[in-house]
Structures are given as C-alpha cells and as structure tokens.
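Sequence in, structure out. Go.
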Amino acid sequence: MKIAMVGSGYVGLVSGACFADFGHDVVCIDKDPAKIESLKAGIMPIYEPGLAELVSGNVRAGRLSFTTDLAEGVDGAGAIFIAVGTPSRRGDGHADLTYVHAVAAEVGAHLKSPAVIVTKSTVPVGTGDEVERIIADANPSVRFAVASNPEFLREGAAISDFKRPDRIVIGTDDEWARGVMTEVYRPLFLNKAPLLFTSRRSSELIKYAANAFLAVKITFINEMADLCEKVGADVQDVARGIGMDNRIGSKFLHAGPGYGGSCFPKDTLALLKTAEDYEAPTRIVEAVVKVNDSRKRAMGRKVIEALGGMEAARGKRVALLGLTFKPNTDDMRDSPAIAIAQTLTDAGVEVAAYDPEGMEQARPLMPGVAMMPNAYAAIERADAVAIVTEWDAFRALDFERVKALANAPVLVDLRNIYDPADVRAKGFAYSSVGRA
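Output:
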C-alpha cells in the first residue's frame, strides 16, 4: 500500500520509516525544503538511535521517499497520515491545531482517489470531526474516512516501540476504514500486536489519558521521594515494593527532577483545557502540573544546599551533566535542566554543562550557561557536580579524575544512578533524591 506521511518531524519520520520497513511504499511530506533536502542526503533532523540506518536502508530499497509537494505525495495513497505538531497555544494552553487544519484543507483539495485520512498527531477530543468537515467542504465528491491513530513512542526507543507496541489504537466507526487500517498494520500481526478499535473520540482521549496517567505516576513517586528524605526511608525500595504489585507496575516509578519533553507537559495542559471546556475538571492532573513545575526549581535548590546554602553558593561553580529531558534524545523541550540552571544562575552560581547530544539545542535555551566539550571539562574547577540526565556516559565516572579536576568532591545525583555508600567511600559528599 502507498502511505503518505504529512509531517516529517519526530512522529512522522519514525512512523514513515517503520512503515517502509514493513514493505509499504511511503512518502514523507514536509513544507520545509531544507529538512527534505537534508533527509534526501541522509541527514536526520533529530537524534534517535537507529533512525538514520533505518531511513537510509529503506531509501536505498526504494520504499521511502521525501517531498515538499503534497499533491504528488498523496496521489494514489490508500492511507494519508497527519503527523504535524500540535504545540501548546500561546495564552491559553490549548493544543494549537493550526497545522492539522491546514493539512486537512490541503489534503482535501488534492485528494483524487479514495483514502483514509489518519490523525496521528496528538489532538483534543473532537478534532477528527473538524478534520472530516474541512475535507468534505474542500472535496465533497471523493470517498474518504477520517480515523484516529495516536502514537505511543518513547524518545530514545521509538523504533522498538513502533515495531513491538503494547497496543495499536485505531478510532473509527467506518468498516472500510477498519479494513484499510488493518492492512496498514498487518505486518505487525506476526508480533501479535493487539489492534484496539474504538470510536474516534475515544481514541483521541486515550492518548491524553495515557500520558496524564504516566505523569501522575512520575509525580507521585517524586512526592514519595520527598517524604522518604524526611522520614529516613529509601525511595528506590519504596518504588520496588509498590511496583511489584501488578496493579501498579514498576515503570515510571523512578524518582528524579520531574518530567519534561515533547509530550507530557503539553498533553497534560491540553487535557486540563479540554476538561475545563466540557466542565469536567481533572483535579488530579491539575495538581500534577503544578507539582511538576515547582519540582524542577526545587532540584536547583537541592544543588544549592549541597554548596552550603544560598550565601555560600554565590560565586561558586556547578557542573551540570545531562541537559536533555531524558537520555538517548536531543530533545530539550521542557527539560528540568533548564529550570535547574536558571535557579542556579539566579542564585549567583556559575554553571558549566555537558550533554552527549543536546548541546546545540540547549544553547539558546540556557544563555548564561557555559557549554563544555565533554563531562570532565565541565567538572574542572567545579564546586559541585550535578547529574541531571542519566546518560550511560555518566554511569561510570572516574572519581579520582573528578576529585583531581573539581574544587570540591561534591556529587548531587538527581537520577539516583550511583550507590550512596560507594560514592561516599571514595571521599565524596553525596546527595540524591529520596534517599537519606
């Protein structure tokens, strides 16, 4: 089947490349000529492990191509995916559907043969209805159906998530569309990936509900970590103890500096706005958003405490290791590191930082921070070292080298990747999250 993927960002590019790897003929479409030319040259616009190889292999095989011409891209496609951005709208926090609506209008204008239009972008409940109306107004004579197919890709593990999904959610009440979407995902039947067919509105809400629930889990364990520090418990033991309960599960119970990235911050906010519009307030999600926002600066204050407090911290230097919101990505969107660095600089602390992949993206977001070429360059002359993102490169630091380079042997481990006793035995003052 020919598949058109409108939008060649994170979701569109990963999804398009994976569909091509299944054997479909995929065209990725984007309005940015520079991005399309880079993709044709094999240069990825994002960092995602394995993506460059997946793209190049399918381009060579003739199953994956790139274009800026939407009319050419959708011509003859049986399924046309909308995978453009839906950022938080300035001023009110609602999801900005400008790009989704624009694509719908353009697809409608160029649609010549029957096709299923699939919203893969994360969109509020009811968006499919509007997409359907826009296309029908633009082209009332062509047969089409609109389906919802939300993505559940984790940055850093997106290819594996796409090829071995927990579930594939498809929202449509149209039998013909069900058949087309079943054929689109037929290659995954060997992996016994469950297809969950729902109404379109249920599918749209599933995406938001899933992300909000995971954000709740993260925020809950972070609050338990604060309590652990007060009562002398170990949050990692607590997380294991509750995570072994199958009703709870162990994932997303890792205490840290709060969630960030492209999904959780904007999706929780969009869900709040949708709930307000329908007069069905989600108080738990509302609390989660507030707690997560305050936690990031609280982690900055934890580093300041390790320096001896506000007065003692002024004029000192801190090395921040890890800037992206999670490892194995270059995504800096809503990263806790931004608020942590700002808290430190507000307190008069000099900040030097290093990240394996996110340096270029971090520079404009952290103007007062010195970006260093490697971890040890950041550590040099530091009065404290803070691990903000748990990249593998930071899991086996040479502590003797750290002591030789730093002004003081102080380690603030905001991801709990080290054993406290081991680090202290090496002569370091050590603090972490949720451990006495």
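Check: The chain has a mean pLDDT of 96. The chain has three domains: 2-198, 208-289, 294-432.
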